[in-house]
Here is the input.
Amino acid sequence: MSQDIVASVSDLSLDNAEPEVRRSAKSKRPTRAFHSFAGNAAQASPTTNMYAFQANYQTPKMNDNAGVFTPKNFNGSKLASPAPMASPGPFGMPMSPAPVGSPRLYGADYGNPNAAPDSTSSYIIPSHRWEEQNLFLTKAYDAVRDVVPPLPTTQYYASDNGICDPRLMQLSMNMIPSDQHIRSATKLPLGVTIQPFATTIPNEVPSSGEINGGEQQVQGSAEGPMRCKRCRCYINPKFQFTYDSKAVCNICQIKQQAPYDYSSAIGPNGQRTDAEIRPELSRGAVDFIVPMTYNRLPEKATRPLHYVFLIDVSTLANENGSSLAVVDGIRSSIDYIIENQPKCKVAIIAYDNKLKFFNLKPELETAQEYDVNELDDVFLPFYQGLFVNPSESKHVIDDTLNRLSSFITNDKYYHVPQVCFGSAVQAAELALETFTEGEGGKIICSLNSLPTVGNGNLYLRKDNAHLHHIKCDNDFYKKLTSDLMTKYIAIDLFVTSGGFVDMANVGHPTLATHGSLKYYPHFVQQNDEFKLVNDMVSTIANTVGYQGILKLRCSTGLAVDMYYNEATGYSDRDVTLPILTKDTTIDVLLKYQEKLKSGTSMSFQAALLYTDVHGVRKVRSLNSSALVSSNVREIFKRVNQNSVLRIMIKDVIRTLGDCDFPKIRKSIDNKLVDILTQYRGLVSGNSSSQLVLPESLKTLPSYMLSFQKQDLMVPNQQSTRGNDRMYDLIRYQSMSPAELLYKLYPQIVPLHVLLEEQDLSFYDANDKLLQVEKSSLEEVSVRNMHANFTDGGCYLIFNGDRIFLWFNPHTNRLLIQDLLGIDPDFPINQITLFGGVLPETSTEINGKVLNLIKYWGQMVNKTTLPVIPLRPNIDQYYSYVMGHILCEDKSINMVESGDNYILSLHRQIQEKIKKEDYIKISNKSQNDDIHQKFVQF
Ligand SMILES: [Zn+2]
Here is the structure.
């Protein structure tokens, strides 16, 4: 069964229809499966099935309990497999009688990152995702032994033996080119991706220091953690201590006296004997609790986070039901804060053509509203009771929210269509500045229409294709943004209408302050309320701190070229992060300052100074390292596609310029051709006529092609600054690596195919690793093409933000009954999923789907993901959504299909190779001073 698909991959066959017709027989066959495919009756005959059942009965099952990770037996250093999949592994877990690296299935290098990169590789994303997940069922990631970190769409256990979990910080190249010339010969960026609060498995970053007189002592006493006297980096496992109490810094190599109270005996191995009890000496990721000298105002105590809820209650927001949904969202958010962030304070302000402040003082019995009509020069009508502890004032908050609901629902006569968005944000800013003395906070704001009264009026009433840029061009919003930045205030914006709101301007403060933007273009209360409430609670639940400043330090020879950060103008200045969430991710481009010595190790330390939501000042220190080499083959083998992809995309965004999208797309193509030509010319050799993708970058072209089809890149004949484009643009700043990959290439999982008992069940006791039997890989890996959708099929689709359940009138009703508990006679067009929740029906398929939803949610840090029906000819959003899901088809803007794209890259590479048009390493002397200007799009 597998030869055909391999043949089609190897030959780059474009016959898309083939693989979906092919079915393999399965052991466990639910009744519904017999009715699924009118055209496939022969393949799905019970006879074949019986045969398969017997054959499979003998197969050793992979989840032998002896090897299952559980919290009890998880110990990173023990679990890390010494030779990834080269042998059956230390756990006695053969995946099946066939060798794991079965050479003809899904590309030759399956499961073995160390295999020679010259073989034909699968560039198919869906297969790659499941294969990699399967690989990490039986091994933990080991930063020392494994050549590249897993993709963000893979769940894995990782140990921290002095190098932090790659989810927290990862390099784009795990082997550092020894000089700029070799780096440029790869055409790849040398950079770092930092997600300081990514959820890791196991999920713990140890603290070093003292909290409120706790037992753990601050090392380095009142001065805070030990730091290098010269480069100011924080103590980390790569500091070397000598017998005479000196320490050598791993970043700048300076030898210095260790503080008197921070000395320790040195063991025979040269390690300090206290390394095991001091996390900063043994772990790559650590939180230092720091003394008051690290506070923004060193003489003042820090505060827990302050939230301001800002609600648009203008006519249109009330009419489409969004303002009511926002009130519900605030109610749920405040409940969450009471439960989980009990020290935080909240304020509530509503606005239309005036500002409505609410006094929430706990002594009050009912809410008091103060209206302010002076919008040009906003002021606070009262002080006491503006910010309150939500638990103490719960009854007043409830009354306020009830009053707002009643105003929205009943007082239609008083509704006004204008919104004073700019003045409202200024009011929230003033409130935070006054109450926190400039310590900062977070504004959560809804907006339903273009601001037309008060400060920050916008006059561009509709989208305009004549403006050839998408930058913020309104002085008020530029000034507002810089004010918010200096006061450490972030703003999350919830846009609840598809009407033009000039997001390039109103969204600019959100973009720069690292807030999150949510957009509900066709807000319908029934469909979107659950999503909005959920998004609002998520933005609070994912908040881990505020008032952050991030700095990356590297060993001598390398330095930060730029942080991809709008607010600092893509410079090398430290990044200010007014708000920090689990998703906050910063990409960094590095530059060479001198030639590096092959064989030496380069250290990287990202230090993030921040205040956690409860008001504790900390420094999160993330440490990693990599060896230097001048061997291009080794360098290519250790390229980390995820970080490369992110930096390529961030670089496109940085240089969007006049929005000439055809030109930008061409430059992306050229970039990919350059990279792959260099690989071909320098590593894989010229002899083969087949396309050879480096194993480490095999799905990069598919992801970059999909990026070219995103809303951001749609040609701008009619539109430059439309909501869709701007929303897409701003999201790239706040998306975590996992969300980005699912957005670029949504994952489609067919539910109508025959699944094994183990398929889509959790492998480990912690419910983190989802497994698919090897024999089912082909079935569950659906490429995102229209031709791969089967009439009568049923698919679960995840785009990083929402889950869609695809079915049509021919879908087996028994399957829908098992899945949703809906009677087979119930009309298909009337099926709804109340509140976006999949009901629990206790059937096998329902259980599998719930597992899948949980798995995806964990990957993108969401406790709930809405499930939305997706039915052709029934759901109005069907075409729009499918247009984004089917990213391998030729787009309506004629961007190439996946297979054709690969073929076209192949042709261009061959041309260049024939002309010897690539950088050769021997040209070295002439090119020594090439500066790393990576992607000049
Ligand atoms: Zn130093």
Remarks:
- The radius of gyration is 28 Å.
